[in-house]
Amino acid sequence: METKLEVKDLCYSYHTLEGETQALSELSFDVKDGEFFAVVGPSGCGKSTLLSLLSGLMEPEKGEIRIDGTDRKDSDAVIGYMFQRDHLFEWRTIFSNVSLGLEIQHRFDDKAREELMGMLDTYGLSGFLNARPGQLSGGMRQRAALIRTLALKPDILLLDEPFSALDYQTRLEVCDDISTIIRTRRKTAVLITHDLSEAISVADRILVLSSRPAKVKGIVEISFAPEFDRPLARRNAPEFSSYFNELWKELKNDE
């Protein structure tokens, strides 16, 4: 697979009146086209900072971020971002919520409407076009948030713990649902999570970060037999516990 995203020697520090706090130190890694890439590390190590830099919300102090070989600042690649909360507007219907990004970008034409309706139908929300977000379950709301993001046809999806606000059972079901959608559409995705089991259940590779300032401790390749092709199925695979123990050991060695 070709490289979609390349990060080289990335550094970032927060500056306050009290002084400087280094968040990231010399991070280097790459993400392949169509790969589901997860990032784990100790709490507060800078995982969300990394996503903000990848998305362009913040600029690195040092290092490079390249998309398809082009510096991110000069790239016309579309970056999709899913947050911990779905950020659906309660005063808008589900259909007007999922079409919001297209409206803002003045791209909501007949073709876009047809594609959006197709996604809503495929992912089980066509019967809720005129419903309000408060009428949907947490899982359905996250599915709507994903459709809103996919409607913009992003080249890369950034996922900042998008399942963490859900109860445990719903979280498992929604993770299985949404990650399968992303894989089916062959999107390049970068997931930030503190849940090792979640990372193993969805990822092709997992980047392990050290405590702050975050450095690359290692990258673990994840591979399961074809019959374990969905996240919930992976959790029942014999290799699952081995991957978990490997990641746990990496993180504990950092303490």
Can you give me a brief rundown of this structure?
This protein is α/β, with parallel strands linked by helices and 255 residues long. It has helices at residues 47-55, 94-98, 100-104, 110-122, 138-150, 168-184, 196-202, 231-234, 240-252, and strands spanning 3-16, 19-32, 36-40, 62-67, 70-71, 79-82, 156-160, 188-192, 205-209, 216-221.
Characterization of this structure:
- With 255 residues, the chain is an alpha/beta fold.
- 34% of the residues lie in helices and 26% in strands.
- It is built from 9 helices and 10 strands.
- The chain has helices at residues 47-55, 94-98, 100-104, 110-122, 138-150, 168-184, 196-202, 231-234, 240-252, and strands at residues 3-16, 19-32, 36-40, 62-67, 70-71, 79-82, 156-160, 188-192, 205-209, 216-221.
- The strands form 2 sheets. Strands 6-7-8-3-9-10 form a 6-stranded mixed β-sheet, with helices on both faces.
- A hairpin with a 2-residue loop joins strand 4 (62-67) and strand 5 (70-71).
- Helix 5 (138-150) runs parallel beside helix 6 and helix 7 (196-202) crosses helix 9 (240-252).
- The longest helix has 17 residues, at 168-184.
- The chain is globular, with a radius of gyration of 19 Å.
- The two termini are 35 Å apart.
